[in-house]
Write a structure and sequence with these properties.
α1 packs across α4 (64-74), α3 crosses α6 and α4 packs across α5. The radius of gyration is 14 Å and the shape is globular. It contains six helices and no strands. With 131 residues, it is mainly alpha-helical.
Length: 131
Amino acid sequence: MLDINYNGVTLAYIGDAVIELAIREMLISSGITDTGRLSFAAQKLVCAQTQSEVVEKLLPLLTCEEEAAYKLGRNHRISGKPKHASVSEYSRATGLEAIFGYLHLTGNTERIQNLIHTAYDGIFSDIKYKI
């Protein structure tokens, strides 16, 4: 049971910003200084398709509360067709964002960092060398 009273879309809304900031910090710490390259890499790492992939790494590691937040985001009914992802990819990505929104709103920054690094470690390395 979640100990916070927000719906899945609200959790995903704040979680999207949390993920974006964490990814940008990872990219900057990698030594890339060209803003065009930084933006390109960030877009690849935060798109729905990539988020849908990385959530699969995290699902076995989630606490009951994190899983509940994921399901709230994932199960939210979308009102249109996503532009660059399938409906299932978009739903899983929204679930991922809801996890990070929940963790942010509960002040669990250490858990955020652990899950970000677990989720994006291999993908981050691949993207970094392609830009």
